[in-house]
């Protein structure tokens, strides 16, 4: 075999290599991704966040740069499941860049990171958490001989299922037992495996096996089948293939819609439209966002953490420097 490899290498002028190697910018390996394998990703983020141009950007400019940084991480997540330690390290670099303009600062930010990573209409910056970006949603049955990566991905399928709507038409695509077409639940989850034995249909049966000429045909040999018959009689049937919708009928799936569904948990704020609107200036938007979140480092706030000894307004207003004072009561800023 060694001679054959040498002959092929000589003919094609290709040297023999060994794993891991880099392919399309990512490591090509046969085992689970380790922290050492991800150092290339950290290096790319460091180069982006520590460039001399980035240090002179405003908060709004840094927010725009983050979109290009996220694209690198999305590319990796589309191929690998990143280690938790690496996700934590990448988030630290991005968090530091947003608040300080450099990617290697261990200080905290003006607003808690979990609040930054929520949609804009809920009071955040619309930055997707790297942990959320790493989530993958699939609805494939787990096989015993599948790889560790598939098993990890399929553990999160329950998150996706709750946002899907199953429409039964001709019953040609949906599993009779395992798809949640019965008012959002699968027959197997609702009634257990016993009902499969009662009906006698195989485990791979489709919904079409209990349809005749556009009507439901269920035997009533047990109370479970009788109840299923009553529930399914209220499900309208139409011509055409079965369909699955995202969250509501007619809405197509997108990563952005999935992220909004997963991150929902905060009430919508009534000031989002005042901050984020078409043709707005990013620097001004970020400043107003900080104002609504009471996150400016005023003298009163700095005195509270022991940085300043006085909190009097520097414009000799004889009042404490607070956000309300700076923006609405200070005579100097009012003239400006």
TrEMBL record:
A Pfam family assignment: zf-RVT
InterPro entries reported in the protein's UniProt record: RVT-Znf
Annotated TM spans: 63-86
Origin species: Cephalotus follicularis (Albany pitcher plant)
UniProtKB keywords: Membrane, Transmembrane, Transmembrane helix
Residue intervals of the Reverse transcriptase zinc-binding domain: 253-335
Coiled coil: none
The protein, known as: Zf-RVT domain-containing protein
């Amino acid at each position: 075999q060694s001679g054959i490899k040498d002959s092929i290498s000589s003919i094609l002028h290709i040297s023999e290599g060994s794993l891991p190697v880099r392919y399309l910018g990512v490591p090509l390996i046969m085992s689970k991704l380790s922290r050492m394998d991800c150092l290339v990703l950290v290096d790319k983020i460091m180069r982006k966040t520590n460039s001399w141009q980035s240090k002179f950007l405003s908060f709004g400019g840094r927010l725009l740069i983050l979109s290009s940084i996220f694209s690198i991480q999305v590319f990796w997540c589309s191929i690998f499941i990143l280690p938790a330690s690496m996700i934590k390290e990448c988030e630290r670099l991005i968090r530091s860049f947003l608040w300080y303009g450099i990617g290697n600062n261990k200080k905290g930010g003006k607003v808690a990171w979990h609040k930054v990573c929520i949609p804009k209409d809920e009071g955040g910056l619309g930055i997707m958490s790297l942990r959320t970006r790493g989530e993958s949603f699939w609805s494939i049955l787990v096989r015993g001989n599948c790889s560790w990566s598939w098993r990890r991905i399929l553990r999160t399928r329950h998150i996706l299922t709750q946002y899907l709507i199953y429409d039964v038409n001709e019953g040609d695509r949906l599993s009779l037992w395992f798809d949640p077409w019965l008012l959002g639940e699968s027959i197997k989850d609702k009634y257990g495996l016993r009902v499969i034995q009662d009906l006698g249909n195989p485990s791979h049966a489709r919904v079409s096996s209990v349809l005749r000429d556009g009507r439901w045909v269920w035997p009533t040999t047990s109370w479970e089948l009788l109840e299923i018959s009553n529930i399914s009689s209220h499900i309208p049937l139409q011509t055409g293939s079965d369909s699955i919708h995202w969250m509501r009928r007619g809405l197509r799936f997108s990563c952005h819609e999935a992220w909004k569904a997963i991150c929902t948990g905060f009430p919508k704020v009534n000031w989002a439209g005042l901050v984020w609107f078409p043709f707005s200036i990013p620097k001004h938007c970020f400043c107003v966002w900080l104002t609504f979140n009471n996150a400016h480092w005023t003298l009163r706030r700095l005195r509270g953490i022991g940085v300043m000894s006085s909190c009097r307004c520097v414009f000799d207003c004889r009042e404490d420097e607070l956000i309300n004072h700076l923006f609405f009561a200070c005579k100097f800023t009012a003239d400006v």
